[in-house]
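Chapter summary example.
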Amino acid sequence: MNFGKYIAHRGLHDISKGIPENTLSAFERACEKGLAIELDVRLTKDGRVVVVHDMSLKRICGIDADVKDFTYEQLCAFNIRDTEEKIPLLSQVLKLVKGRVPLLIEIKRGHGPGVLEKRTYRLLAKYKGEYAVQSFNPFSVLWFRLFASNVTRGQLVSKFRTKSRAEYVTRRIFALPLVWKLISAPHFIACDLRTVSLKMAFRAVDCNADLITWTANSRELIETAEQFSKSVICENFPDDFDFSSNSFED
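The structure predicted for these 250 residues follows.
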């Protein structure tokens, strides 16, 4: 699957322009620029698939609680980052994008085995556009390998130290090529730029997987990332950035 050279991280967002991450306005802006879209999905209390990165609502909505503590109707009462934007349903995003650009959907953790994967695929199976899924959890990727093998799937990789020691140790284990070969069998590896190396690129090739890098948030980092990977997940594009070379054609 070809995502093009640049993938808009959580949509083409710019809070200085009143366009927050993972919102319909950020996704529409990415479509207008011809950029593939990376986004994140989670489940609400009533089992709806919503597009939001954090488990907690604190950073984006100022609410000291988790997404899973609210029904979708209750979430609609909260605005994102002092704008009129709301947390969207995945179904709303699919209706908006309508196959104009490829979608790269991260399956977030915090749900029972297979629950989010199954509900996400139920929506995607009806979608006419191109899409792929990815996750840090190789067992999430395994679900698609076993039950939706037609879906392009990716293994997220990062060895960068996190605040949670347990999460850091888990990510180190999931970054092992043996895990990719035995469990997730990904079509692509999506590697943290703080982790990427020539060795990592060769390991992806050894698994017969493409390499994507994330997240380049400056012109310099974008240029560096392009040396390693076919596609780069980016944000904070300069206003004069040239997207003309971006193409989804093989």
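To summarize the output: Strands lie at 6-9, 36-43, 49-51, 103-107, 131-135, 152-157, 188-192, 210-216, 231-234.
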